[in-house]
Amino acid sequence: MAKIPNIVPITDLRQDATSIVKRVTSSRDPLIITQRGRAAAVMVSMETYEHTQHELEILRLLASGEKEIEAGKGYDLDVVLAEADSLLEGMKH
């Protein structure tokens, strides 16, 4: 079953920003902010944002690697796995 998103009108955010930010930080779930009944922005905790950015960087590296493979370039598997382990270890901290 899909999780029901957290939705807050922008007027509620204006009136009670402190508690809404605390809620986002503690829940780690994204919060959709609406304006005139439509989704206008998404608020996430800093930890969630940083984790997402790290995951995007890994995906960019993978896409770049696939392009290099298609172009006939390549790297030793042991070197690639060591770099991947290092990136994954960085996500744990």
Topology, element by element:
Blueprint: E1 6-9, H1 10-15, H2 17-27, E2 31-35, E3 38-43, H3 46-70, H4 77-92
Parallel strand pairs: 1-2
Antiparallel strand pairs: 2-3
Can you characterise this structure?
It is a single chain. By secondary structure, this protein is α+β, with helices and mostly antiparallel strands. The chain has 2 domains: 6-44, 3-Layer(aba) Sandwich (YefM-like fold); 47-92. The protein is built from 4 helices and 3 strands, in the order E-H-H-E-E-H-H. It has a 3-stranded mixed beta sheet with strand order 1-2-3. Strand 2 and strand 3 form a beta hairpin.
Shape: elongated
Number of helices: 4
Secondary-structure content class: alpha+beta
Number of self-contained structural domains: 2
- Tell me, rounded to a whole number, the average pLDDT: 89
Strand content: 15-25%
SSE order:
EHHEEHH
Rg for CA atoms: 19 Å
Into which percent range does the helicity of residues fall?
55-70%
Strand arrangement in the largest pleated sheet = 1-2-3
Main sheet attributes: strand count, strand direction, barrel closure: 3 strands, mixed
Low-confidence segments? none
In whole angstroms, the N-to-C terminal distance is: 31 Å
Count all strands and give the number: 3
